[in-house]
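Attaching the record inline, Q. Sequence:
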Amino acid sequence: MHHNDTRPDDSAVPEPYRLGSYVYELPEERIARRPAAQRDASRLLLVDREAEAAEPKAFADLPELLAARFPRGGLIIANNSRVFPARIYGRRATGGRVELLLLTPLPLLHVKPLPGSGHSAEAEGLVRTAKRMKEGETGIFDAPEGMALSVTLLERGDYGRCRLRLEWQGDLETILNEIGHMPLPPYLEREDDASDRERYQTTYADAAKAGSVAAPTAGLHFTPQVRQALAAKGFQWAEVTLYVGYGTFSPVREADIRQHRMHAEYVEVPGATAEAVRRAKAEGLPVVAVGTTSARSLEGMHAALGQVGPFAGETGIYLYPGCAFHVVDALLTNFHLPESSLLIMVSALAGRERIRAAYDVALAQGFRFFSYGDAMLIV
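Structure, as predicted:
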């Protein structure tokens, strides 16, 4: 995994804010190209902020580890958004291929009826063609019997993002489920296959929340058995929705990480979840976020409202060392890319040097990295 060699000069920037502080060397073979044989068979690195060193454990130990640290139980918050098969292939009127990655979550599309029985909606997406597609040009996509889908490029934006108009006959989600591919992270360097349909998705993803273009990966390790064991130890479960956007793969490019402009993602914290958080806080019980997306939902909600409460809207919250966490007490997360806003966020929670040392342990102990890799528990 090579880091960016054209890195800006950051020698004058104080250590915790220096982009170069978030670089580590990862041998290619340590990137998990495929999921573990079983979801909960992955490994877990325990990072206890009161202990000296990080300790290798098994993910199946999670209920015991949390109970040992929090004997009175606590509240676990997970992101129930569903990855949708957002990558589709079609053709142009000229006959060339067109590849589209749809970025707008399906529940957030403003759907308008078309004359006859069709529908249309504007969306954002990334378009890839051999020869540049012109504004106003349309691509045609295969669809199941009796259905149809076409996509017109309306306007080009930054970083390859385009404004598009989708027009379809039939049910859009059915069409995408039929023709779409799971949008695996670029660094996996492989096409998706049938098993990714199941494994690049949490077991608790909500069918009504189809809109993420990347999985909330810390949740991939959970099985119903692990959840039952957690409940038996007094850990309640509540859910938020954050539609994971493509910006999650954008590296930080600023020499001083404080200058980074964070991408926004759409978040929903339902009333029942907000109430569960308020109750946990009142009783002095820990709020344990499953993944950086759940943490971002809770902290984004707090930043928007100034307190804990129901929230629906975009958050562009950016957490780096020196920023306070107002809601999240503990975090389960996977291992993140060098120079990523996610590595910076976990460093904000646990301290840059502690995370650095933990990654060194993970590298020395043969842990698997990134989306399909092993997990870390920060308590």
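The chain has a mean pLDDT of 95. The CA atoms of residues 35 and 372 lie 5 Å apart.

More tomorrow.
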